[in-house]
Amino acid sequence: MRNHILLILFSIFFINVNLFSQQNITGTVYGVGAEEEKIPLSKARITWMNSDIGTLTDDKGNFKIEAIEDGHNLIVSFLGYVSDTVHVHDYEGSLEIVMNTFSTTDEVTVTGRMNDATISKSDMSSNFKISEKGLQKAACCNLAESFVTNAAADVEFSDAVTGARQIKLLGLQGIYSQLMFENVPSLRGLATSFGLSYVPGPWMQSISISKGTSSVVNGYESITGQINLDFKKPEEYNPMHFNVFTEEIGRFEANVDATYRLSDEVSTMMLLHGNSSSFDHDYNGNGFTDHPLVQQFNFMNRWKLQYDGYESVTGAHIIVEDRQGGQSDYLRGINKEAYGIDIKTNRFQVFSKNGFLLDDDALSSIGTIVSFTHHSQKSFFGKRTYDGEQNSFYANFIYDHSFADYEAEEKYAKLTTGLSFQYDNLNENLDLNPTNRNELVPGIFTEFSYSGLQNFIFTAGLRADNHNLYGTFITPRFHIKYDLTESTVFRASAGKGYRSSYIYAENSAILASSRNIIIESDLNQEEAWNYGLNTTSEFDFAGVYFTLNIDYFHTQFINQVVMDMDRDVNSIYFSNLDGESYSNSFQIDLIIEPFSGFTASTAYRINDVKSTYNGVLMDKPLQSFVKSFLNLAYTLPDESWSFDFTFDYNGKGRLPSTANNPEEYRLGDEFPGYLMLHSQVTKRFGQFEIYVGGENLSNFIQPNPIIAANDPFGPYFDTSMIWGPIMGRKIYMGARYTL
Question: Taking the complete model, does pTM exceed 0.70, yes or no?
Fold first, then answer.
């Protein structure tokens, strides 16, 4: 594998060195905004007339193209704009090209084309960003369904009855990645199992997935990466937006967001979401509904204040949900003694982020982030009851100072330091056995970033936290980035992470089974190192634009809370790591844009994840070894139609041992690979659009997702052996309207 990687890296180097050795013509491409201002257009296509030689503009609208013999006319094209031909004979200096839109009415508002997804070259870490347009390429009803059309992360079901889903990053569970709402840590503890369904897709502006160790400014919990959600902002969006969605299984959702600007400095936005699934379906005939019946109400209010030298974002978020599952006879009221599940959730969060500039040159600033969350859950799983209540408070006080070279008019270094505090109070009651847990963690951190060396940036961070249960611990983290050329960057990172485990809250699947839950000893804090290497390159070849991204990450656990499902088919054991546990993840992404409006995104990933179970180092169960991915997307030049197709192959993996089950309840040693197909077509009529799509069009369904489904109160009942889709083909449709 290493020889292949070196060959790829050498090829990238050779291509880029040759590209930049030619005589080039430079320029910038603009659109025109609502107030006649010029807007740089990213990914506008520039080609020589009667030639295959071309390029795309960068995120600032700039381009550089190789001069050719007898080349005098450049063709400039951009989705939603009229193509233009620019004569460049005897040109001097940099070109400035202003494009016109397709005119359909007397008044036209021009905005730049939004890329579906981008792999950043400028960030210090390997970062994949999904834009609002990218989120609209699939049903994307909530965060759990936002990764269908990209390979940045995987989302899988945790069990076959509750609908709980988990993100997997670098081959490890989502609990090892830090999930943040605009840099506010969220969806922790009790929210872990079902939190991905608490974030409606139409509310999100973008999702950023950063792999590997992250900044110490945001805490110590990130081990495999960070997922940061950006919500729609009142100062940026239209007065009102509607979205409705339905699918053939009887699920219905409605979203509305409204913006009101009280003044140039003050604006507010209200976001409302409701969804209902009232019909149960049992397509595999095992007596259990294939999806939970969910009723959810979701509301958020955001306020933005912006004055000279001061900015504030404050908001509140309320969620009420009732989730039911189990046997169809129970849900239909035919037999109340049948196996049933009911999970009632109430969640409330308030947050405030404030920034203060301390000087006219914007070199020094102070930031504050505070949030409070209350989360309560009352539930039963068959005859097992589980109730939980969690109150959390988070505060982060940040001081930033940048060092500038006034002669060069640029900043070359930045120092960030501050204080943080995390408080969690968790009360749990499993089968009338109450427990209480309080965690108080004050912390201090500092981070220094230096960019004074040509094409080289490094960041070093260190934080110290004092945990009332685990004592004081130190978290070091490092990043370096080197720009080999204008189109190719290399990155390396190393850092440590820690986290507290919540056995019941984070593992709802174990509650929906007959297995005994055995915690062998006092569980220590989880602790791991993460190391990463990454390269990202953008280049042209024969008039086709490519983005190539390669990364490798190694996660090595010092301590891990290990869940052992192999030792005993009637029990699940939780214990501290006694041996080795690690993850190796290699991924290569290639994005190809052969002509305007069409994008092909491909990815291939290898995950090698092992841990020690009962003294034996084994592959992590229910984890695919490989993943292959292809997404094809095309939008017509006037943006009236969009077409999207996704092919997603997940390879085979290991199954936990069921050898001691009765023969009819035994599974094999491994599960097979499988292919899933997804598609969506969108038609736009000005501010109104409709979309129709299908998920899992290959109609693959995991066989026997529930062990002993015919005896749910018996000793072998288990819903947690999930490795593939438990629902077959689903057809959906929806509509969006913007005022």
Answer: yes
